[in-house]
Amino acid sequence: MGALYVNMFNGWCFTTNSSSCKGGRIVLAWNPNAFTLSVLKVTSQLIHCLSKEREDLWRDLCGLGIGVHKPWIVLGDFNCVLNIDERVGAPKDQLLAPVTNEEVKYAMFSINGDKAPGPDGFGSHFFRENWNIVGEDVTKAVLDFFHTGKLLKEINSTTITLIPKTKCPKNVTEFRPISCCNVIYKCITKILCERMKCVLPMLIAENQGAFVHGRFIMHNIMMCQEIVRQYGRKNASPGCLIKLDMQKAYDTIEWDFLEEMLLALGFPAQFVNWIMMISSYAAKANIQKSAVYCAGMKPEVVQQAQVFILPKHVLKNVEAICRAFLWQGTYFCSKPGYVAWDRVCRPKKEGGLGIRQVQAWNIAALGKYVWAIARKQDTMWVRWVNAIYIKTAGWWNYQPKADSGWYWRKICSVKEKLKGLFSEAELDQMPKYSIQKVYQKLVQQHEKVPWGSAVWNRASIPKTRVICWLMVQGRLQTRERLHKIGVCNTTTCLLCEAKDETHPHLFFDCEYSRRCLQGVEEWLDIPTSKVHYMGLLRWVKWKSQCSKFQKTAIHTVVNATVYNLWRARNDALWNQKVPTPSTTIRCIQRSVIDRLAHIGAKQSSTNDQIWWKSKCTI
Q: Are residues 134 and 274 in the same domain?
């Protein structure tokens, strides 16, 4: 019997009560790489042991017991039992627990507000913003479904939009059906899905990475790569690899079979009735919205960037495509950009656009595997690499062998890079891995620019932010810059035709610009006599007595002024006409007033509303 256990659980530790007690039939086995176990006592009826990973739990329980001066006992079994229904608070009780008002609100607020609306025409953003008005009625409608098990067909109505997978689809299979559901329907399904999360890990096999939180299909990919790597070697055991192309058939199965399967898996009958009620739907096709083609990387490419270290030439090509699209609007172009790419990839507070460096992001994405091993996560892949590679060695000082798989060597190289940023204790104590935090440590840090908050304030229109960002760095294609690179023969300003067209002149010294700035000064009482952009910012920050809303409004006006002056200059270049200063001032005022009304100027204080209302009478 001992040899059998050793063969089945290679590398595990064992203890039994058969040697100390005649007729003992208890065998205890544990994986020393997963946790540490100490055997305290062995009798004919039990093996008393202590897991090091449970010491904190029992220490906390003992601490609670110190204040109790009467006999006490902890009820419940912290370990798994053969039948999950034997435990108090088993999944059945959780599935059928009464739905609360807080649960409905949480489900509603967790729905993405940018999703396309269903037949009712409303998105979840509408319900969230007006929850104090419609929240009670929505909650009653959702709770009525769980109380009665009935759902109005108007709520269960769905609009199906067909999105083509190819530019010229010929078969039905070349369309991707997207169901646009009502928000109340989404709220109900959200509640049911949240309750099923506790059951799915018990039903779905561990070697399947989909549908269960915390599992990743990338783990299976890496394990398959390791298995395939052994094929064809002389010392490898005989084996075969079978590839199956299985078509998704969720909508082609019988609904009766689905219901019987749920009941056979042990779901309560009432919960199954809820699922069957929302599964039957009334749908209508909406083909007019089907001509949508998405640009960017495919999901498969993004997945590969999170599994493997991509070759440097591939990363350079990706950055070249991003750079060409940013500056030229096309995928392939060798023209240089207005701003160096390393500066573009800096955070906005450091003077960049916040675009990620692909190579650093690739390393940060792979760092989650280093973190998972350091945390000894209870996943099949972590157990696999511990059994195949690490074994009894320490992970932080582990060095891969020359015959290790190439993906494993790459993960170890990522570990070496993270060792320069984190200690083993810091990585082990990180409760949740954040790609963003690791990425920020990988990239070089720079000083904050003083104009970042003004240029990128949320009230400004995006196009005015970008033009102002280029202006403050002196990167707009003025005649003075074009003359330096041999594109333009003259440097004369297009608006005043008196001086050279430099950035300071065009936006602050030009006669045309001065007249526009004077109009802005009369409108908002800001000192446009400042000779440069930074002077205005310093006045707004240090010398003005403005509120936060008023400062935001002034920054928005300044950015809009820069944009409209640049637009007037381009009209003079390409259309041979210059709008009057009064026309430019009206464009500035109208764009700012409309923008602040759109983002919600009414949410400001009463004094700010009075101040802004006085400025809107133009």
A: yes
